[in-house]
Amino acid sequence: MTGHSPLFRKKMVAFRPSQYRRPQLTQQPRLDADTVKASANWEVFYTSQLGPLKGRGPWRDALCPFHPDRHPSLRVNVETGQYKCMACGVSGDGLTLLQNRDGMTFAVALKTLRDFQ
Ligand SMILES: [Zn+2]
Fold first, then answer.
1. 116 alpha carbon to ligand 1 midpoint, in Å?
2. Residue 84 alpha carbon to ligand 1 centre in Å
3. HEC states along 56-103?
4. Is residue 64 within 8 Å of 74, Cβ to Cβ?
């Protein structure tokens, strides 16, 4: 106990409200899912993940990675990042695609998606 008390006192001083510095927290770049999704280039992302997308406009067609698909059944929205398969029914966005297809954790998927801006 006595051996720990100096460290303990030091911590208590460091976290005293008067010395609490909020800017230190916000200076760290933080990955926010909504921010990453909003700035993602979904067309580039989905093309890199699923191959060439077919069609024009916001909704494109691609081969579904969640079932054996020879005719493009996956509807992908290149503006919002949403997808839905007309054959097997899976739906989600770029993050759930990486998590469910590749087994990525949410954090890793978010970092991966961040590279597509
Ligand atoms: Zn499918």
1. 23
2. 8
3. CCCEEEECCCCCCCCCCCEEEECCCCEEEECCCCCEEEHHHHHHHHHC
4. yes
Task: Report domain extents, the chain.
Answer: 31-114
42 alpha carbon – ligand 1 mean position (Å) = 19
Protein residues with C-beta less than 5 angstroms from the ion ligand 1: 64, 66-67, 85, 87-88
Distance from residue 36's CA to the centre of ligand 1 (Å): 25
Predicted pLDDT of residue 17:
59
Residue 16 gets which letter from DSSP?
-
CATH class name, domain 31-114? alpha beta
Please give the order of strands across the beta sheet that includes 82-85: 59-62, 74-77, 82-85, 91-93
Q: What is the pTM of this model?
A: 0.74
| DSSP state for residue 29 in the 8-state scheme | -
Question: Does the structure show a pLDDT above 60 at 70?
Answer: yes
Separation in Å, CA 85 to CA 4, 39, 42, 60, 72:
59, 24, 17, 11, 9
